[in-house]
């Protein structure tokens, strides 16, 4: 049972999210007709709940569907890969991201790691410290500006990521296997377009 279904059950709601023809589905289609929007039969339960809750409001539902499903997919993938791959290496998603960035772009300054991750510098510093305690990276201070710290992998850290990343990518492959190669290329292209739009805004 999905989380939205559990919430409905606990709240004693009578909302029907079954097959076409159910009361909720019929109402949803009527709402969609009035809003002149298409409602796909593969809507997730939470999407149907949100459509019902926002009925009558001036909402751009297609835009909401895009952004909310990007978010849901990202969080679901993060959780799955943390549980199936990263847990064995005692890494959080943030820790893995830091290790990956140092591997690809290192030696790299702490401030640049934070920028690439979209997190605060103290958060990145904490991640780097955790990796350093495991002997996976080392820090080097700048001779010009003592505030600037550069991080690079140790031989042990490089070996760890070179063993870990193929397993991580296998998890990515499993997640993406619901899409055909053509669909994978298409969604990657569209997501790059969304990302470029966000960065330009």
Could you characterize the architecture of this molecule?
The structure is a single chain. The protein has two domains: 3-59, no CATH class; 82-200, Arc Repressor Mutant, subunit A, CATH 1.10.10. It is 65% helix and 6% strand. It has nine helices and three strands; from the N terminus they run αααααβααββαα. It has a three-stranded antiparallel beta sheet. A hairpin with a 7-residue loop joins strand 2 and strand 3 (149-153).
Which tags fit this structure?
three-stranded antiparallel sheet, 201 residues, mainly alpha, Arc Repressor Mutant, subunit A, 2 domains, globular, 6% strand
Query: Radius of gyration, rounded?
Result: 22 Å
At CATH level 2, the architecture of the largest domain is Orthogonal Bundle
Average pLDDT, all residues: 85
- How widely separated are the two ends? 39 Å
Low-confidence stretches: 12-31, 33-37
* CATH homologous superfamily placement of the largest domain: Winged helix-like DNA-binding domain superfamily/Winged helix DNA-binding domain
Order of helices and strands: HHHHHEHHEEHH
Task: Summarize this structure briefly.
The protein has 201 residues and is mainly alpha-helical.
